[in-house]
Amino acid sequence: MKALVAVKRVVDFNVKVRVKADRSGVETAGVKMSMNPFDEIGIEEALRLKEKGIVEEVIAVSLGAGQCQETIRTALAMGADRGVLVETDAELQPLAVAKLLKAVVLQENPGIVITGKQAIDDDCNQTGQMLAALLGWPQATFASKLAIAEDHAEVTREVDGGLETIRIRLPAVVTTDLRLNEPRYASLPNIMKAKRKPIAILSPESLGVDVAPRLKTLKVEEPAKRQGGKKVGSVAELVDKLKNEARVI
Amino acid sequence: MAVLVIAEHDNRNLKPASLNALAAASEIARLGGGEIDLLVAGKDCRAVAEKAAKATGPKRVLLAEDAALEHGLAEDLAPLVVALAPSYGHIFAPSTSAGKNLMPRVAALLDVMQISDISAVVALDTFVRPIYAGNALATVQSNDPIKVVTVRGTAFPALSAEGGEATLETVEGKGSAGLSQFLRAELSKSERPELTSARIIISGGRGMQSGENFRLLEVIADRLGAAIGASRAAVDAGFVPNDYQVGQTGKIVAPELYIAVGISGAIQHLAGMKDSKVIVAINKDEEAPIFGVADYGIVGDLFKVLPELDAELARRG
User: Fold this and answer.
1) What is the ipTM of this complex?
2) Of A110, A227, B109, B259, which residue is the least packed, with the fewest Cβ within 10 Å?
3) Which of residues 231-270 of B touch A (CB under 8 A)?
């Protein structure tokens, strides 16, 4: 079967974002962009399924501006076989992304779709669940272990109280959590090889999907700053301050 | 129109996060969004519904009992919520692993966007939500007919579990969709308070060096009645289970007192705890970013500081 993995281009996780002066969003010009870390885990998991002989082909799909090709190239350099870019300069919200991914899924017929559990820019945590809903497929979110056997998968999920294991019918959508795997680095030969791998370019129009946003961002602001930085000289002083100044113990 | 709140429970007890979601829903009610109904969906969970009917906030508690609803599988619960949806302008759930799993499925089936993890209600259609690990706050307005929302518990003080008088009504489950099946759970057992509702939390990071060393935190937690948390680094290293993780992609907490031990303070960790009332940092690296948000910092070796802290707490009682 094929595995389809969604990869999003986001502000690198090490960047301290700055809110724009006009409060329309955060500054992304001249900022380092990378693949969403949860999506790297998704690519890695698909590659491991391929190495086990369960998956024959790994397809990396990204949606957005032309620069998303770089994100797809990163996935190809890790070992994905080919890419699909749904190219648009429109703002894409998770519901629209899920509809576009559904259209790609109907063309490609993968046995499994893997997405990150959330993107570290908008922190929405929606796309995988929405895609599963639109396809009428099962969903296994926040996966920390994935085992595939014939027509179903057993997935261990990270939940608030610990771990939960479910069995889902395939095809299905799986969203990755941090402990699923440790993504590999692309080797130089593979980076060179990735340059020759194909990326198909589609558009929302060609897929017949209306991507009009449902949420309007009225403003983006910086949160109130904490006044931290004070130090105490001893444990006795700390306990005294917690008791008599902060009154929290 | 009215507000539907999805209760979180384990078929025995209502989870505290439900009361935070009710608090956010009550702000909608105050703005004219209608009365609040609370959905308790599960298996043999009438006792939960009866208890929930005493919570402040809901006018009605809707009880759905169905074997397929026992474990809250999104594939089986979402169709029930979707069937109820036409009577509501807002559907709220706690932003817990269960709520995050369920609500986008509900939203997509209704062809609406979900509004994730709100930290404030501005108007019936307008909400504030943190983005970029809480380094920015977005105010968003929804033009969808039904607002499907998950609620950041720490931003809405819980309503009281007592004092309400909701009526109890039953609704039919939708059976199993046959897509997914619960096999087993390995839940951490602890006598300590739950992380997301604890008044005091003591968390360990990579600096703890091993799982055994978390014992040093446990003795202090027991003295203070605190919950124990961890940074991602400590969970990734296998010191403690995943459900200890505080941060952008783990649990969001805001206790009265947060004690960070051997945690450097990556922005992803700060995202999960920087709304705590008082923050204490214990770290040997004076330059660690955690000190930037700490009200009281101690620069020192945690293996010396923790026993001293334990002794001092014991001495002062």
Assistant:
1) 0.97
2) A227
3) 232, 235-236, 241-243, 248-249, 251, 256-257, 267-268
